[in-house]
Amino acid sequence: AAIYDRQIRLWGLDAQQRIGGATILVANIRALSNEVCKNLVLAGIASITVLDHNVVTELDLGGQFLLCEDDIGKNRAEAVSRDIQLLNPRVEVIVDKEDISEKPDSFFESFSVVCLVHSDYQTMLRIDQLRRKVKKPFYAADVFGWFGYIFCDLVDHAYIQEKKTGDSTEKIPHTEEYVSLEASLSKDWSSMSLKTLKKRVSPMAFVIHTLLMFQRDQGHFPSEEEVDIIIEKKDVYIEKMGISDSDLLKTSLLREVCSLYRTEISPIAAIVGGILAQDILRTLSANDLPIKNWLYYNALDGKQFKQFN
């Protein structure tokens, strides 16, 4: 208990014990994954499984602080496991070198939390559906240059919210229902006025949802050349969302996000990774309400925007 004394004082012994018993899967090792793994391991979870079948390349060294030049050619998961273990020897670090697409459904059922980073839409959809069947938390996240997003599906999440009344603090239990990734991307925005949409919904929401819909339909993330195709057909994507004003899908923002798709900027990964890891810990601790369902980050205006579905 003394090791995590500050955390116990922050969110309580019961919450720390829940965190201390958690088993977490982080799939696809990127700069964002490095940050998430670091923060979760330092918080004292029981075990972390890092899954990636790819090998380290020179491009990985720019954003991933858990890698060094000697790791080039090694499996990514195996390479980062060394320094992850050094961060907290008390946490079990498990390396899995298999392709996530070849994993059986049963593999994803037992983890306390599953977190996918830089994953394709079909994999996100498949694993979210599997996690919903066993009623366990699922996260998906990514960063593209200056931008990032987090998706969270906790199915039915029970949590405690503290309310201060005078000198006393009342603990009030709540239950929040989440929607699936598929339902979230199929959301019809037509019930909201254009004025409300512009005021309450981040422009990043329409960009990210459009890109994921393109990936769903085409089987891959759009290249810079294909951005022009999306822009030509942006009225079609906007109509699928139930929006009448195509200007809500910002062409310049869409183009910039796509152009930076494979770019990892360490400070952006650190910010989004810190938010993501903290939210996973919030979910495990059952203190306060986690993200529901989306968070979008745009470093160019310094804003993070939570979108509630």
UniProtKB/TrEMBL annotation:
Occurrences of domain THIF-type NAD/FAD binding fold (ranges): 4-305
Subcellular location: Nucleus
Main subcellular localisation: nucleus
One Gene Ontology cellular component annotation held by this UniProt entry: SUMO activating enzyme complex
InterPro entries for this protein: ThiF/MoeB/HesA (IPR045886), ThiF_NAD_FAD-bd (IPR000594), Ubiquitin-activating_enz (IPR035985), UBQ/SUMO-activ_enz_E1-like (IPR000011)
One Gene Ontology term of the molecular function aspect: SUMO activating enzyme activity
UniProt-listed Gene3D superfamilies: NAD(P)-binding Rossmann-like Domain
Listed Pfam families: ThiF
GO-annotated biological processes: protein sumoylation
Entry keywords, A to Z: Nucleus, Ubl conjugation pathway
Listed SUPFAM superfamilies: Activating enzymes of the ubiquitin-like proteins
Family: Belongs to the ubiquitin-activating E1 family.
Name this protein carries in UniProt: Ubiquitin-like 1-activating enzyme E1A
Organism of this sequence: Rhizopus stolonifer (Rhizopus nigricans)
